[in-house]
Amino acid sequence: MEFEGKKVLVIGIARSGVAAINSLVRRGAAVTACDIKDRDQLGDDILNRIEKLGAVCCCGKYPVVDKDKFDIVVPSPGVPLDVEPVARARALDIPVMGEVELAYRIKSPDVNIYAITGTNGKTTTTSLLHFILQQDGRKAAAGGNIGVPLTGLIEQMPEGELATEISSFQLATTISFHPHIAGILNITPDHLDRHKTLEAYIEAKARIFANQNADDFVILNYEDNILRKMAAKCRSEVVFFSTERVLDQGAYIENGYIKVKIKNRSARICPASAIKLRGRHNLENILCATAMAWAAGVNAEVLHKALAEFKGIRHRMEEVGIKNGVLYINDSKGTNPESTIKAIESFAEPLVLILGGRSKGSDFRPLARLVNKRVKELVLLGEARAIIKQAVMETGFKNINEVDSFEAAVNKAAELSEPGDVVLLSPACASWDMFDNYEQRGDLFCQMVRARKE
């Protein structure tokens, strides 16, 4: 699509919105940038930068959308698709595309996109795939839902390979997005406050392979029933991975070794014991990245070296340090119950668990049952604490400690812990009731832990 002369409305003036504005202005589009926040909330720095690009800013309200006013509408991932300007655009058949779709349309044909989605594990898998590609000496970058917005990377890459994390919000506004290799790690109920139904959430995730063909690959978790059934809808080459069984084709564990086989290429990569990351969920992430890298032509020697050296990412099962014999783990990226369940299952030690924040419409009952079996003390905070408390109390668990601030939660967890324990921050909730993002929450946790005296 040519953007020169097009009248484009970008909704949401944050990281991906600003990246989209920059790319559109560079291609001659007449851009109006809007945000429901007013000028004081957004700040002069970001607005001055946008206005210097040549875009018109509309703050504190949404402009009226009509066919004579806008040719394209670009909502940021955080903007619900039922807001008035998006709903109006769709009713008028005005194209609605997100920043990821925009990035795909402006990319060089010499850039290959490898896209990863799923409810949990996206960031770890994307970061690992990027690390593997770098170890193979390729011109590679990582971005999308992590780090730099996709359009920002595309602008800097005339050629190369992009490992991209793509969320359900981003996929929901794709049209022609076509990654050569796609991976879906798992699907469990999440973001139902936004998608409303599990079926709609699954439909959004499936868009990652919607435009693939027989020359492409989609990597799926065989142990996820939803994904196993989804394979029938794929036109691309389906490759499974599994931590539970040996597969005829795919990535799997056999006799303690990670193995991969796709078509006529197969190899024993390395012992699973060589992996530095804790937990079966991380083994799934590793197998998905391994299969994607193998499909991209990476050899076994490079894969072995990369898998053995990869240390994980910040805010996901991050070992902050040991204080007074207690290990502190920052899993601030655990923003739904399923992610926290996987974190808990990674430890045999007694756990002091910090839970709470803003619920994303989750069912906390499965997590509550595991808390009753595996957690020594529970520290609750945030908007969702009453819902979580009710679910936990119904299991008969009684060691519940409620606090009113994040600082109080960390201090209470430290007070309740003893040498040999693990204090685990894995909130099972979004951070937005107290923080701008999960990174800010995790950073404060790390800061407070490191400041504690021995």
Describe the structure.
It is a single chain. The protein is an alpha/beta fold. It has three domains: 7-95, Rossmann fold; 101-309, 3-Layer(aba) Sandwich (UDP-N-acetylmuramoyl-L-alanine:D-glutamate ligase); 318-451, Mur ligase, C-terminal domain (Protein-Tyrosine Phosphatase, Chain A, Alpha-Beta Complex), CATH 3.90.190. It contains 18 helices and 19 strands. It has helices spanning 15-26, 39-42, 44-53, 84-91, 99-106, 122-135, 150-156, 168-171, 192-195, 198-206, 225-230, 280-295, 300-309, 337-344, 365-374, 385-393, 406-416, 438-451, and strands at 7-11, 30-35, 56-59, 72-75, 111-117, 140-144, 160-165, 181-184, 217-221, 237-242, 250-254, 257-262, 265-271, 318-323, 326-330, 351-355, 375-380, 400-402, 422-425. Strands 6-7-5-8-9-10-11-12-13 form a nine-stranded mixed sheet, with helices on both faces. Helix 6 crosses helix 12 (280-295), helix 14 (337-344) runs parallel beside helix 15 (365-374) and helix 15 crosses helix 16.
